[in-house]
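User: Predict the full complex structure for these chains.
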Amino acid sequence: MERGVHDRGGWSTDEPIDRSEHELADWELLTDALFGVLGRGGLMNVDELRRGIESMAPDEYERASYYERWLYSVETVLTEKGVLAEGELDLRLGR
Amino acid sequence: MRYRSGQRVRVAARMHDGHHRTPDYVKGKTGTVERAHASFTNPETRAYGKDGLPEQPLYLVSFAQQDVWPDYRGDGDDRIYVDVFEHWLEEED
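Assistant: Here is the predicted structure of the two-chain assembly.
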């Protein structure tokens, strides 16, 4: 297997690194809180969170922001566990 | 704890198809055990819904920056510190 897209230490790049800070949006704070609750409730742990992020298709991973990756992973893992039904979030969002 | 502070160890160069916490850039590199932290649940199984038992010893291992990065231009004494689980470490020959 190839080195994972997340395992980036030492990847050479000519792209400038964006070091700017940004205010967290409400949905980002809520995502952090949601994962905290899932952890304390025993529904999902940090290793599962990381594994779910690492399972993203490389192009999706590159496009996604930090907390978008968290959301992707939460949906992936909770769907695996049957906490969410397949497509349940999309359905509820009317997509 | 199999290794002790000051011991030279090599990180296994193996590929691992699945979640693991050993970064690619230290695989196959030789470093020095700085400290044995403690034992922790194994993220490689805990990431897939298991309990992560038995716990695995975790070490703080230091590497010379110039061993890790072939074109490192900083000070020759610079070191990088990485937490590595025992089952990723091998005794240096």
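The mean pLDDT of chain A is 94.
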